[in-house]
Design goal:
single chain; Rossmann fold; 2 domains; 20 helices; globular; binds pyridoxal-5'-phosphate; lyase; Thr_synth_N_sf
């Protein structure tokens, strides 16, 4: 399987080549040359597989430069009971009103980002080892992504992580989670600024190409193809667990921000998985809901982006959306380029002419949820079922409930556990979310973090002091 760019300007590359890259050289995003088809018989033959075995079956369709046995060893190391708490890895949790949760948040950081990051950590170490290379991950986080990356890469050979976070602006739980890591290859830098300042510094340093190559900087952000591929697996898993017969249909609702999670659902559907609908749920930052309603994509500025009680969905632009647009315009890289040129020039592009296809061809529908919806949904689900859901999952439940159809299971992706967002839970049900037993001592652990002023040169110096330059 070779990979190409959504903008058409990249020579075909292998999985291992694109694994360590961010944007394609032409500014586009990497995609496989085709989506491998999975027929009904193959799908049925997968019913008895463990999660790790299923992951190896699906990922090998996209990764042909890692031998099969090695790939299975990687998925076994990523997806096992010691990392995800039980053999199921992704449990299904029935709710009410025709909805079921797809439990994607049983990993070390209690959010679905662990699903992809745990595999990424294994495959990074493997590929770097084969190439006798090292890589220094530089990233900025406001919470979920950074901690998932650190837990996946801690102690891995050949990889260092330099993670910038805004000093004093993450929840106590999130801080304790990240800063309590004592592994030598994990570097937490708390900058006296906001998340956007941290991200600007990452952009400045990664944009200094000389520095970037001398210090072998890399990224693990949401456009990483291996993350998208790893997420495809749990759509198949959800379908296999929610159905008993070939051809049965399932719908999924996906709390969305950067369009990474639901893009994986789209790819599963393109591979032939019988998905009826992909329901995209946003919070008040409804750029994507607006697109599916109007056909116009109009990202917002940082100032126009609301700080909401489902903060991991507070995005202004959806970094993976270009991969879906590529399909919408029949994989015509010229049309993709024209869209993004128009976006640069006018702040928006208009694909309303293709609107009839959004649902009929691709199964997409969308809806938005608000703070009041979130609170009411958390409370209602708790009262009716005893299950406590987190604010992001609540956005999904709220929107998904409006699209339930008789006889078709609706799986809502549980993108985080409530313990991570205690304040909103308290507001919704009048008491805090329970902290899982194994994390109760977290806040008392010693923390390892370097607090510094918000200055790219300080971060540059820190990296130089901790990594040997390459000639
Ligand atoms: C990252 C995240 C999302 C959004 O996922 P995308 O792939 O960016 O669409 C939703 N909920 C939680 C809890 C997250 O951490």
């Amino acid at each position: 399987m070779k990979y190409r760019s959504t903008r058409g300007g990249m020579a075909p590359q292998s999985f291992s080549d694109i694994l360590l890259e961010g944007l394609a050289p032409d500014g586009g995003l990497a995609l496989p040359e085709r989506f491998p088809a999975v027929d009904a018989d193959t799908l049925e033959s997968w019913r008895a597989l463990s999660y790790a075995e299923l992951a190896a079956e699906i990922l090998r369709l996209y990764i042909d430069d890692i031998p099969r046995d090695d790939l299975l060893a990687l998925t076994r190391a990523a997806y096992n009971a010691s990392v995800f708490g039980s053999e199921q890895i992704v449990p299904l949790k029935p709710l009410n009103r025709g909805l079921t949760l797809l439990g994607l948040s049983e990993g070390p950081t209690l959010a679905f980002k662990d699903m992809a990051m745990q595999f990424l950590g294994q495959v990074f170490e493997y590929v770097l080892g084969k190439r006798n290379a090292t890589l220094n991950i530089l990233g900025a986080t406001s919470g979920d992504t950074g901690s998932a990356a650190e837990y996946a890469l801690r102690g891995k050979r050949g990889v260092n992580v330099f993670m910038l976070s805004p000093h004093g602006r993450m929840s106590e739980f999130q801080r304790a989670q990240m800063y309590s890591l004592q592994d030598e290859n994990i570097h937490n830098l708390a900058l006296k600024g906001v998340f956007d300042d941290c991200q600007d510094i990452v952009k400045a340093l990664a944009g200094d190409l000389d520095f970037k190559s001398r210090y072998r900087l890399g990224a693990v952000n949401s456009i990483n193809w291996a993350r998208i591929a790893a997420q495809v697996v749990y759509y198949f898993w959800g379908w296999l667990r929610a159905t008993t017969a070939a051809g049965a249909q399932v719908s999924f609702t996906v709390p969305s921000g950067n369009f990474g999670n639901i893009l994986s659902g789209h790819i599963a559907r393109r591979m032939g998985l019988p998905i009826r609908r992909l329901v995209l749920a946003t919070n008040e930052n409804n750029v994507l809901e607006e697109f599916f309603r109007t056909g116009v994509y109009r990202p917002r500025s940082a100032e126009q982006t609301h700080a909401t009680s489902s903060p991991s969905m507070d995005i202004s632009r959806a970094s993976n959306f270009e991969r879906f647009v590529f399909d919408l315009v029949d994989q015509d890289a010229g049309k993709v380029k024209a869209c993004w040129k128009q976006l640069d020039e006018t702040g928006a592009f208009d694909l309303s002419g293709l609107k009839p296809l959004f649902e009929s061809r691709y199964g997409f529908v969308a809806g938005a949820s608000t703070h009041a919806d979130r609170l009411a949904t958390i409370r209602q689900v708790y009262e009716e079922t005893g299950v406590l859901i987190d604010p992001h999952t609540a956005d999904g439940v709220k929107v998904g409930a409006g699209h339930v159809e008789e006889g078709i299971p609706m799986l809502v992706l549980e993108t985080a556990l409530p313990a991570k967002f205690g304040e909103t839970i308290q507001e919704a049900i009048g008491k805090p979310a329970p902290i899982p037993a194994h994390l109760q001592g977290l806040a008392r652990l010693p923390q390892r973090v370097e607090v510094m002023d918000c200055d790219a040169e300080l971060v540059r110096d820190y990296i130089k002091r901790h990594v040997a330059a390459q000639a």
